[in-house]
Automatic annotation (TrEMBL):
Species of provenance: Stenotrophomonas capsici
EC number of the protein: 3.1.3.-
Top-level EC class as recorded in UniProt: hydrolase
Keyword Hydrolase: yes
Pfam families in alphabetical order: Hydrolase
Alphabetically ordered keywords of this record: Hydrolase
Protein name: HAD family hydrolase
GO molecular function, one term: hydrolase activity
Domain of life the protein comes from: Bacteria
InterPro entries: HAD-like_sf, HAD-SF_hydro_IA, HAD_sf, S-2-haloacid_dehalogenase
């Protein structure tokens, strides 16, 4: 399929890097930090208990699902309070979390493919997560980063896609959203009037019978190759 793509919006977690290893490292980093700075908190909330507390905070605060940083702070604040620790430890604990959160290991294909894509068309990061592209070291490859926390609503809300298109200055139908999640990324973007590209690394079945992805690849390299073959003019 060939159609004009003047800009790309790109998901981050599980599209450029797997999130599961990051999540596991965060759990251990936070536990080690608590062992050093608040042993009572570490004793009350070992890794499994802290994870359970975080999951309960997520369930109990659906109004904050667009703001994962606020949910993380809620979890840390509750753990510190319940264990009798000083609330002054909240921000240092959050910083320990956030440093670990931004230590990513790219999929083998992702970084080189991203460089090729960014040389071809403007790329904007559109994510429900709270990664920081500057900390990660790839900010220069993006026109901007639009997170659900900044926007006030999470994908697949059409508004976040429309806001990205507006900032890019490109019509919805000429923006290709690229991501791993069938609903939040691909179907959500297509319902908002964008084109949708599914990066389906794990060979999942597509279940949205009412629409089909405009493009589907098992690596980001596939998209870079498609752009090279189909883009009429370079950036």
């Amino acid at each position: 399929m060939n159609f004009p793509v003047l800009a790309i919006t790109l998901d981050l977690d599980d599209t450029l890097w797997p999130f599961a290893p990051i999540g596991a490292r965060i759990d251990q980093v936070l536990h080690d930090w608590m062992l050093e700075h608040s042993p009572a908190t570490a004793a009350m909330y070992p890794v499994a208990a802290m994870r359970e507390l975080r999951e309960r905070s997520f369930r109990d605060n659906p109004h904050l699902h667009y703001d994962l940083s606020a949910l993380r702070r809620l979890t840390l604040a509750e753990a510190l309070e319940n264990s009798g620790a000083s609330p002054a430890l909240l921000e240092p604990a959050y910083e320990a979390f956030y440093a670990a959160r931004n230590q990513v290991t790219f999929y083998p294909d992702a970084l080189e493919a991203l460089r090729r894509i960014a040389a071809r068309v403007p790329v904007a990061a559109v994510s429900n997560g709270n990664a920081d592209l500057q900390r990660i070291g790839i900010g220069e490859l993006f026109a901007f980063q639009l997170g659900s926390r900044e926007f006030g609503a999470a994908k697949p809300d059409p508004g976040i896609f429309h806001a990205a298109c507006q900032r890019l200055g490109v019509a919805h139908a000429q923006v290709l959203h690229v991501g791993d999640h069938a609903e939040m990324d691909v179907a959500g973007a297509m319902r908002a009037g964008l084109r949708g590209c599914w990066i389906n690394r794990e060979a999942h079945a597509w279940t949205h019978q009412e629409l089909q992805p405009d493009l589907q690849f098992d690596t980001l390299t596939g998209l870079a190759d498609w752009l090279d073959a189909n883009a009429s003019t370079p950036r």
